[in-house]
Amino acid sequence: MRIAHVFKAKGYRVDMRLVEAGALLHDIGRGRTHGIEHGVVGGQTARRLDMPMELAHIIERHVGAGLTPEEARRNGLPRGSYVPETLEEKIVCYADKLIEGDHEIGIDVTIDNFAQELGSDHPAIRRLQDLHREMTAVLGEKF
Question: Helix or strand or coil: residue 50?
Fold first, then answer.
C-alpha cells in the first residue's frame, strides 16, 4: 500500500513521507546514547548524512513533549528549543509517547509515567497534555 505524499484533513496538510521517515528515524541517536540527548545526537547524525533539515528537526524535537531552551540548558544540551513546531514534528513526537516497548499505551499511562519521573507539576506534563489535545483535534481520537 502506498501512502499519499500529502494528507489533507480538517484543513491541515501533512507531509506523510516526512512523518514516515521521522517515525522510522526518530531514535537514530540511540545508536550512541540512550539518554535525553539522543534526540540532539540523532539530529546531528541526520545533518552529517545530509538528510533534510525538516527530518533532523523531527529527530531532535521528539524527546519527551519537547524541551524548552531552559530545560535544554539544564540538561547540558546545545542552546536552542527542542519543542516540536511543525505538524509533522508533533505527530511523530506524540506517536512516540503512545508506544512503550513493543505495545501501545494510552496517553494517561504516559502522563502518569512523566509525573512519576519528573514530578506532577513539571511543565512537560502540561506540554504533553496540550500536544494530546492538539493531536486529537487534528487526527481524531484514534489515528
Answer: coil
* Spatial separation of the C-alpha atoms in residues 46 and 53, rounded to whole Å: 8
pLDDT at 52: 97
User: What's the predicted TM-score (pTM) here?
Assistant: 0.91
Q: What is the pLDDT of residues 46-96, one digit of tens each?
A: 999 999 999 999 999 999 999 999 999 999 999 999 999 999 999 999 999
- The domain containing residue 34 runs over which residues? 6-139
Contacts of 116 by beta carbon, 8 Å cutoff, 6+ apart: none
Give the span between the Cα atoms of 96 and 39, in whole angstroms: 12
**In this structure, is residue 1 part of a structural domain?**
no
* Amino acid in the structure at residue 38: H
Element (H, E) at 8: strand 6-9
Q: Three cell numbers at 104? A: 501501545
Counted domains in the chain: 1
Q: Assign 6 to helix, strand or coil.
A: strand
CB atoms within 10 A of CB 95: 18
Contact yes or no for 62/96 (Cβ under 8 A) = yes
